[in-house]
Amino acid sequence: LIDCLTQEALVCRESTNVQYCSIKKRVRMKKKKTREKKKKKKEKKREKENEKNKKENEKKGYKKERKKIGKRGRKERGRRKGKERREERNKNKKKKKKNKKEKKKEQKLAR
Fold this sequence. Notes:
Layout: H1 7-14, H2 22-60, H3 71-110
C-alpha cells in the first residue's frame, strides 16, 4: 500500500467515498478473486468426493439415487398417501363396529 502515499491517493482517502482509491480497489478485487478461486477449488473437491462415493456405493450394491420429484409431485404423493391412510382407517373402523355389533348379539343370545 506504499502507492497510497502518492498525492492522488491522499486525495482519494480524504474524499468521503473511499471506493475511489485505486489501490484499495485493487486490493478488494484481489481478495474477491482469491475468494472465487477458493470456492471453485472447494466445488471441485466436493464433486470429486461425490464421484468417489458413488463408485463405492455402486460396488457395495446400493440403489442408485432416486429421481428428484418436484414440489408438485411431492404434494400429489402426499395427498395419495393421506387418502390411502384415511381409507384404511375407515375400513378398520367399520370392522370394529361390525365386531362390536356381533358381540352384542352374542351376549343377547347368551342371556
